[in-house]
UniProtKB/TrEMBL annotation:
<dbReference type="InterPro" id="IPR029071">
    <property type="entry name" value="Ubiquitin-like_domsf"/>
</dbReference>
<protein>
    <submittedName>
        <fullName>WLM-domain-containing protein</fullName>
    </submittedName>
</protein>
<dbReference type="Pfam" id="PF08325">
    <property type="entry name" value="WLM"/>
</dbReference>
<dbReference type="GO" id="GO:0070628">
    <property type="term" value="F:proteasome binding"/>
</dbReference>
<feature type="region of interest" description="Disordered">
    <location>
        <begin position="91"/>
        <end position="121"/>
    </location>
</feature>
<feature type="domain" description="WLM">
    <location>
        <begin position="117"/>
        <end position="311"/>
    </location>
</feature>
<feature type="compositionally biased region" description="Polar residues">
    <location>
        <begin position="109"/>
        <end position="121"/>
    </location>
</feature>
<dbReference type="InterPro" id="IPR013536">
    <property type="entry name" value="WLM_dom"/>
</dbReference>
<dbReference type="InterPro" id="IPR000626">
    <property type="entry name" value="Ubiquitin-like_dom"/>
</dbReference>
<feature type="domain" description="Ubiquitin-like">
    <location>
        <begin position="2"/>
        <end position="78"/>
    </location>
</feature>
Amino acid sequence: MMTFTLTHRSQKYTLTLPSSALVSSIRQEIHYLTSVPPSNQKLLPKPAKGVTLTPAATTDVMTLQEAGLKDGMSIMVLGATAEEVGKVKQEEAEASKWKQPRNYHPSMLQGTKPRSTATASAPNPFHSIAPHASLSQDSPLHAQITAYLSRLAHDPGIVHICSLHGYTVGHLTELLPWQNPELLGLNENKGQTIRLRVRTDDADGLRDYKTTRTVLVHELAHIDVSDHPPEFKILNSKLNAELAAFEKNAKEGRHSLVEGEMYVPAESGSTGAGGTQGGSYVLGGAGLRSDESSTQERRDAILQATLKRMEKLEAEIEGGCGSGSSERPKQ
């Protein structure tokens, strides 16, 4: 006989089965205890490093011993219940119903002409957001993390740089601090999924928003460039500069129809730089006069200043980025 300790959403269960039992039988017992259907279950045995049991015809017909399970093991169970999955599908169906184009009677369309409007909002570049699948919807953190991720996905500066570069992200979610403590962000398959560390190390609070947003910009750059070669650093700095320019222009009520920094002429009689801050150029500042340097020179100066100002932060983010690692992090 083999005895296991099961953990599902902080709830522990003890299960005893013969060693000759199949993996499918342990899934049935887990379904009875947790209400998570076998098809939704992902089993993480500990301390069996690297062993993960996902629903598959090959693993479910193995005995417990053949699958690498041993007596006394702890097994973490991940997966949503059938009720939770049904609720999500129902919400998606209702949302889809409301998003469908309105059907008008033909008599109402007589004499009308199609028109376009410049104020029509573009679709959000993040197709879906959600906390980690192991977090219960009943947890107070669920709503907080959802709101945090939603704020990132709808951040005007983030949406702006995604629009400039044509970036889209399939799914935005979180990295758990206790599973990959060394990682701050991870971009999987060129933006198919981006995972960010949003919880503090004690998992009870949320990390600083602007720091996490900088990590998100870093992971967005990995949509174009894998790993961290020099061209990645240049692109990452460009994205941060574009975000800073957008926020500065928005704060000062300026609007630009072209990509890049804006030229703002100095006031009459002004002899000071006027557009510097902390020894570096400020995007959109009056210190970058069009008669003193070309557009490319101004852009290079901005990139160099941004590189210098963010060098320390970027070193920390790069060290905590899993997008260039050959070993797949835990999820």
